[in-house]
Design a protein that fits this description.
single chain, five-stranded mixed β-sheet, 37% strand
Length: 266
Amino acid sequence: MDRTLLSKVHICFLLFLGLLPMAVQAQVGSPCTAGTQSFFVDLRSAPDATWTSPAGVTRNNGDLCCGASNPDRCLQFKVLFHPDAVGAVLEFASGANPPGHHYWVKEESDASCGTATPLGSPVCISYSVDTFYFVFCEPGNNPNQYIVESVEGFSQSAPEVTVSGCNAILEVSGVFDESSIVWSHSNPYYESFLNCIPGGGNTGCSTIEVIIPDDPGLPASITYDVCADVSAVCSGAFPPVCTTATVLILTPPEATVPDYTYCPED
């Protein structure tokens, strides 16, 4: 083989080997420069667990993450989640809080940081045993205290009790995009009882009226499915979070009073 060609091949091969560690490093692990200030956050105890940093945390000059550059200073939170967690929020607990702050989230095995999320707004997660890196960067060195909160999705009140011919109110609470909520039932007849407050219909509300007809053939209870996205940016990228809400239907007492309807609040 021509000596010049052999040298060129040798040089190219060495350059390729030199690039390999950079490629591997970009795919896994921390998105920050070596030595960046870091906090370990263990939220595995509960799907709605919360962690609070020490007060007065500052960021170090030269600590950079997720493609940030000077004059930014960054810090990272290494977070582990409960299997039932569906989202998380990073926000300030105390300290200067001018508008416009954002944070980034990267799962350990991801190739790069996700899109910026406004501080205090939820991000969606799919459960993994991997570490999630939450990154905050800003110029300057304001001392702050931080909160990392795990989001479990929906929680619901106790089953609502009513009788045939009366109405019931169902509601859910938690962290979710209210405009994406859908209340449903596999039986179209039972689904027709639903009436969002306000607006009517069965979508876009966390509180809904169930208009129970005077029908002796109704079952003792009706359980509705309730699904929604954790936040608007999760739509299509993550499956919706779902729960159920139940109406218990009692048999009204017999009465001889004409034209009188008994409801539980009477």
